Structure formats: C-alpha cells, structure tokens
Amino acid sequence: MAVKVHLFIDNSNIYISAKDEAEKREGSGARYAIRIHFQHLLELALANREVGGVFVVGSIPPEQRSVWDRLEQATGVKPELYERGGVSRGEQGLDQCLQVHMLRAMGDHADDPQVIVLMTGDGAGYDDGVGFHADMERMYRAGWGIEVVSWRNHCRRALREWAVANGVFVDLNEYYNSVTFIEKGRAAQEVDLSRRAVSAARQSPVKVAEDRARAEAAVKIAALEKKLREIEKENTEKSVAKARYDRRFKRNGK
What we know:
This protein has helices spanning about 10-25, 30-35, 40-45, 65-75, 90-110, 130-140, 155-165, 175-180, 205-254, and strands at about 5-10, 35, 50-60, 80-85, 115-120, 145-150, 170, 180. By secondary structure, the chain is of the alpha/beta class. The protein has a six-stranded parallel β-sheet with strand order 4-3-1-5-6-7. It has a two-stranded antiparallel ribbon with strand order 2-8. The termini are far apart.
C-alpha cells in the first residue's frame, strides 16, 4: 500500500501566530489585515504527495470552505472541519477531537505506517502524556513519518526540537510571504518547495516483530530439516551396511 500524507491542522493556532508575526514584520496594522493563503499552506504541507486524510479544527469562515472543496475535488478526500468556539473548554475539546483522529489513523494503519503532517505549535500536556506532542511520539514509535509545520517563535521548544531530531520541522517563518497575504495589500508569493524536506514512514514495529519471528522460525526449520537429512542419510547407510552384512552372512551360512 502506498504511503500517504495525513494532515492535521490546528487552524486557530496557526492563524493567531501569523497575526503576531505580521505585526512584527509589517507593522501593527498588518495584525488585523493578515490572512492565511490556505491553498499555498496546503501545497507546503502536502509537498506534492498523495493525501490520505485531512482533519481541521479552528475558526473556519465560510469563504475558506472553497479551499477545502477544491482539495476534495482534486484528491477525493473530504476534510473534516470543526468550528472552534470562544469558550476555552470547547477549544480543548476540539484539540482532543483532532488527537482522536490522529490515534484512529495510527490504529487504521497499524501494519502500514504513513506520514503525519501536524500544523500547530501547541505542545501542551506533554509532561502528563497527553496533547499533540505525546500522540506524535506514539505515532513515531508505530513507524509513522513525522512532520510539524509551525511558526518557529510560536512553537513549543520541546515539540520543535523533537520534530527536528526525529522527523521534519517546517518553519512557516521561511514561507511567510507565500502562506500569508495582506487584505487589500500585499499578495502571496508562489510556494517554493525546493528546500522543503520530507519525512518517510518506517516499517511497523508489529511487522518488524513478525518478520523477526518468521526469520527465527525459518532458521529453526532449516536446522530441523538439516538434522532430518542427516538422520535419513545415517539410516540409509545403516540399511546398506545391514544388507551387505546379511548377504555375507547368507554366503557364509552355506
């Protein structure tokens, strides 16, 4: 089965961080005029690879749905979109919803690990074994290729450094002029993927264990077959010797 990209997007995290970055780069007015160019963001995330699934949580205005509709038309994959409310409890619930889909994807591909691209900078909950970071480590241990797409200055350091060490970290700061535009102002540039590193899936630990068990069984079977051939050869030699002895005894008996 071909390896595909499974994309998980914490939209509000990416957008709010973009506002801070816009203010720093283009002035206070840019904070309110900055917009995410979702088509370019998807191009950066997917990097010309086949899509296995797309899950998005966050503020999804109606005008952005056309982007996801085009993605569905192009790939046949229908993204699951979740609106984010203003209550923090609801936001946490939606983060957990995204995590559920991550773990489901891992379970559905237990024998054929894929590649996860996570767009967020949120590494909260890691020390307690929960949150995006903890679940990405679980997917990594299951053989998945790991990629985190985030704004460098707004991504938790532990998550960023772990992604660099174990997969790929895509710094949105380097693609700022491509994944954002200023409403009634600066247009977005085309995405340059020439420097876009990608990760690769590894063999499933389950498959590794199965292959190891198969290899060990093959060695044992080969050893038993060799022993059987030796026994058969020994028995054949004994039969030949006995036949020779019987013939000699018969002659002497006359």
